[in-house]
Amino acid sequence: MIVVKVGGSAGIDYDAVCTDLAERWKGGERLILVHGGSGETNRVAEALGHPPRFVTSPSGYTSRFTDRETLEIFEMVYCGKMNKGIVERLQRLGVNAVGLSGLDGRIFEGRHKDSVRAVENGKVKVLRGDHTGTVERVNTGLIELLLSAGYLPVLTPPAASYEGVAINVDGDRAAAALAVALKAEALLLLSNVPGLLRDYPDEASLIREIPAGEVEAYLGFAQDRMKKKVLGAAEAVQGGVLRVIFGDARAGQPVTAALMGAGTVVS
Questions:
Q1: pLDDT digits over 213-226, tens only?
Q2: In this predicted model, what pLDDT tens digit does every residue of 8-43 receive, in sequence order?
Q3: Cα–Cα distance measured from residue 256 to residue 266, given in angstroms and rounded to the nearest whole number
Q4: Which residues have a Cβ under 8 Å from the Cβ of 171 and sit 6 or more positions away?
Q5: CA–CA separation, 27 vs 23, rounded Å?
Q6: All domains in the chain, ordered by first residue
Q7: 51-60: which pairs have CB atoms within 8 A and are 24 or more residues apart?
Q8: Sign of the Cα pseudo-torsion (169, 4, 76, 14, in order)
Q9: Distance CA 264, CA 267 (A)
Q10: Cα–Cα distance between 130 and 70 in angstroms, integer?
Q11: What does this protein do (predicted)?
């Protein structure tokens, strides 16, 4: 079992990712794809007159402040345009993909955080009306049902709260929770950089290997959204996933290259 998470930032070649996935799927591999959509969500939110608001926690993690209107835009893009665009690509390649959000069948479930602590102008503020959370439970039964029937699951946030409310969750950490729950052999976190860089944005400073027990020691090299990827990698290896690879989704055969060790390998 391999869980592949592809990000939503500029420069990602979804055609390359889907073509590579399709070839491996037809070769008999069990795969699940999780995707993001942050770049397109930002563009649509701006166009709709409700621009994105990003907040930084006291511990240095950046996330999207998700009020109800932002959540609805998020669902339009992640569950609609991005998810169905990827499913269509896979269908055209002969793969019977099924696109679902974490809300569907409570595939991803967690606690709803109504408020978030954020640092603004040097002060810590409490912002209310947030619709975020962290995946704490995965409906593996539904995923296994799809896989056993020959369908490739294509999953995306949001998740469901325990009360059934849609919540924005980090896609990398959701993919990590999925990989742990399914006892996956590998988790691939593909984005628009070649891996974790020691000196961002210098791609020649790629960190090729990270020992499984030392992942959090490398957090200092992670910039912006890469912090959540490193955190997700730490959670995955702690949960028993044998390998986590930060790979490049911009061209070529992104899945195959990552599985062959291109990028940053955590093991």
A1: 999 899 999 988 89
A2: 999 999 999 999 999 999 999 999 999 999 999 999
A3: 16
A4: 5, 7, 8, 34, 35, 36, 156, 157
A5: 6
A6: 2-266 (3.40.1160.10)
A7: 55/116, 55/118, 55/119, 55/120, 55/127, 56/118, 56/119, 57/116, 57/117, 57/118, 57/119, 58/117, 58/119, 58/124, 60/227
A8: positive
A9: 10
A10: 10
A11: Catalyzes the phosphorylation of LysW-gamma-alpha-aminoadipate.
What is the C-alpha separation between 80 and 241, in angstroms, rounded?
Answer: 30
Give how far the C-alpha of residue 125 lies from the chain's centroid of Cα atoms, to the nearest Å: 27
Residue 60: per-residue pLDDT: 87
* Structure confidence at residue 141 as a pLDDT band (50, 70, 90): very high
DSSP β-bridge partners for residue 99 = 154
Virtual torsion, Cα 202, 43, 72, 169, nearest 10 deg: 0
d(CA 186, CA 200): 25
Is 168 marked within a binding site? yes
pLDDT tens digits, one per residue of 180-224: 999 999 999 999 999 999 999 999 999 999 999 999 899 999 988
Q: Is the Cα torsion angle 185, 246, 103, 153 positive or negative in sign?
A: negative
Say how many residues make up the chain: 267
